[in-house]
Amino acid sequence: MKLLTPLLFIFAAADSAVGFKSISSSNSQRRCSSLLRSGNDDGVVSIDVSDLGLTIADLEKKIPTQNFSLESSGYQSTSRLPDVDDEGCYWVENPEDIDVTLRIPGLRGQPAEALNVLFSTTTTSITAFGRIVWSTIQMGISDTSDCTFLTLDGEDEVPIVQLNVRKRDLDERWGGFILQVGEDSIL
Questions:
Q1: How far is it, in rounded angstroms, from Cα 86 to Cα 91?
Q2: What is the torsion angle, in degrees rounded to the nearest 10, for the CA atoms of residue 160, residue 72, residue 7 and residue 63?
Q3: Three-class SS of residue 67?
Q4: Element (H, E) at 149
Q5: Could you give the CA distance from residue 157 to residue 150 in angstroms, rounded to a whole number?
Q6: Cα Rg, the chain, nearest whole Å
Q7: What is the distance between the alpha carbons of residues 128 and 157, in angstroms, rounded to a whole number?
Q8: What span, in angstroms and rounded, lies between the C-alpha atoms of 29 and 146?
């Protein structure tokens, strides 16, 4: 099996002629050919990579997912109000789970020790002193037997709730954590 050295090609197209110097890999003496612009003016840019020894069959092979993983992250609002974007939910998604950090402004003043998290396959609820005060419908289905949480005291008396939500369907992309803030949220 032939191992390929990753190369980064940056293409820049301009109305005038485009010229690039050859790029060399530090691990080998191979050099990539310079960028050539096609004779017609249809904007097609081509590269001669014949010196890499690749075939079309090599390029059509499926990339093995066990060799790497993709991670995505973002912020979402924890408010039901459409005009309010408090960015109170920061999530990091991996193929197997999603890590969530919640800083819900409506929980200001609540002691972290009085908070609890209830997980179901499609929802997550936060309780304060045993009463549900905030809930969300999740973007995907979770495996409730492998979900965990941690509550911490935060800045400005807003507690931090950290969640690790295991996905039921591994490798399914949620693209966020909050689909909708629950109707029963009293905050």
A1: 14
A2: 130
A3: helix
A4: strand 148-152
A5: 16
A6: 25
A7: 14
A8: 49
pTM score, whole prediction:
0.65
Task: Write out the two tokens for 46.
Answer: 């081509």
The amino acid occupying position 123 is T
Is residue 163 within 8 A of residue 126, CB to CB? The reply is: no
10 Å Cβ neighbour count for 137? 14
> pLDDT digit of tens for each residue in the chain (187 aa)?
444 333 333 333 333 334 433 344 433 333 333 344 445 556 777 777 778 888 888 888 887 766 667 899 999 999 988 899 999 999 999 999 999 999 999 999 999 999 999 999 999 999 999 999 999 999 999 999 999 999 999 999 999 999 999 999 988 999 999 999 987 666 5
Determine whether 93 is exposed, middle or buried from the number of CB atoms within 10 Å of its CB (0-12, 13-18, 19+).
buried
Question: Residue 165 is inside which H or E element, if any?
Answer: strand 160-166
Kindly state the helix (H) or strand (E) to which residue 101 belongs, with its residue range.
strand 97-102
The first and second tokens of residue 34, run together, are 């310079």
